[in-house]
# Entry
Amino acid sequence: MNHPHADDGMTVDIDWIAAHVDDPDVRVIEVDVSRAAYDEGHIPGAVLWNAYTHLRDGNYSLVELAELQRLLSGSGISLERCVVLYGYAAPLGFWLLKAHGHENVRILMGSRDQWGRAGREWSTEVSDPAVAAHPPLVVDTQLLASRQAVEAAIDDPSAVLLDVRAPSEYSGERFWPSGATEDVGRPGHVPGAVNVPIDLLRTEGGAFTAPERFRSLLEQANVTEDKAVITYCTIGNRASEVWFALRFLLGYPDVRVYYGSWVDWGRAPTTPIET
# Structure
């Protein structure tokens, strides 16, 4: 996605990355769901994070904090180092770092292909940075919502639960976006959650729509700045992208991501569900 109106300092462009690829104080990370594109060519020096195997466990939940800390250290990331994320799941990586205390992080929004289109050379050399000392991670509960926080928000008039999945997922027609029938739980949505599908917030070219229209669509669903907003989707990818837009495109002050999202809620045996 391209977010030209995002707050200065949070986003970078191709020229900025090109000027810092050899900067020892900058670590570039590609976040994707497979290594196919990375192996074909990536930004020189970039380390690959797989959104499924590095950032989640076998149940699609966040890996243990100690394991996430080891990932950062093994990627050559110290607390002081600036981390720049790009790729399919870059918003997820951005949010995860912010939600676990790594403040010095920036993001290249939009397609990874921007690098090649700008005439920059890809690299096929796998980066193997020296291990860095990253301190233990802690959860920022102002950015990450637990299942218990979602339960508490159901009847809280000062909060709103924002479901950004497709209508077929929200209504209970599908559990997974693909419609897969294996390894599923109970379909539906969190009681009281409002549905603003992420595709409604995008233009035909894939960028987020203009801020004025974006805000209007949210306010029509009662997702207003005065509310504590919790975003969720299926496994957190779309929710983290909308979190970024709410925080840095529109300036909403209180936004959290329910990282467990529907795969956590719909698989739990006793959580309330509406269809």
Observations:
- The longest strand covers residues 26-32.
- The longest helix spans residues 237-249.
- Strands lie at 26-32, 47-50, 82-86, 105-107, 159-163, 194-195, 228-232, 255-257.
